[in-house]
From TrEMBL:
<feature type="domain" description="Protein YjdM N-terminal">
    <location>
        <begin position="4"/>
        <end position="32"/>
    </location>
</feature>
<dbReference type="Pfam" id="PF03831">
    <property type="entry name" value="YjdM"/>
</dbReference>
<feature type="domain" description="Protein YjdM C-terminal">
    <location>
        <begin position="47"/>
        <end position="112"/>
    </location>
</feature>
<dbReference type="Pfam" id="PF08274">
    <property type="entry name" value="Zn_Ribbon_YjdM"/>
</dbReference>
<dbReference type="InterPro" id="IPR013988">
    <property type="entry name" value="YjdM_C"/>
</dbReference>
<dbReference type="InterPro" id="IPR013987">
    <property type="entry name" value="YjdM_N"/>
</dbReference>
<protein>
    <recommendedName>
        <fullName>Protein YjdM</fullName>
    </recommendedName>
</protein>
<comment type="similarity">
    <text>Belongs to the YjdM family.</text>
</comment>
<dbReference type="InterPro" id="IPR004624">
    <property type="entry name" value="YjdM"/>
</dbReference>
Length: 113
């Protein structure tokens, strides 16, 4: 019997091979045999429409008019958004915009100031 390493994420001993990947059935983490020594928590890099790297607390500008769901008016091009927070998901930016309130934006529709 082949001795497989424990899961690097949850330390489960019930890992199995699936082709060239190792899989943990408990947390669904997948990795290759040589990568368990690398940092398992890879940090996602967020970039704006121009390719500039975004960080929490940055200020950005909206680059096109965006329709706001549930609101009769649109978010206009050139609107400045201060103190953004980056999150994982479909919409990468959590923020508060004066006149609109809390919103989620996609990084592809903003540029860094």
């Amino acid at each position: 019997m082949v001795d497989l390493p424990n899961c690097p994420k949850c330390n489960s001993e019930y890992t199995y091979e699936d082709g060239s990947l190792l899989v943990c059935p408990e947390c669904a983490h997948e990795w290759t045999l040589g990568s368990e020594n690398e940092n398992s928590e890879d940090k996602k890099i967020f970039k704006d429409a121009n390719g500039n790297v975004l960080n929490d607390g940055d200020s950005v500008t909206v680059i096109k008019d965006l329709k706001v769901k549930g609101c009769s008016s649109a978010l206009k091009k050139g609107t400045k958004v201060k103190n953004i927070r980056l999150v994982d998901g479909d919409h990468d930016i959590d923020c508060k915009i004066d006149g609109f309130g809390a919103m989620k934006l996609k990084t592809e529709f903003v540029k860094k100031l």
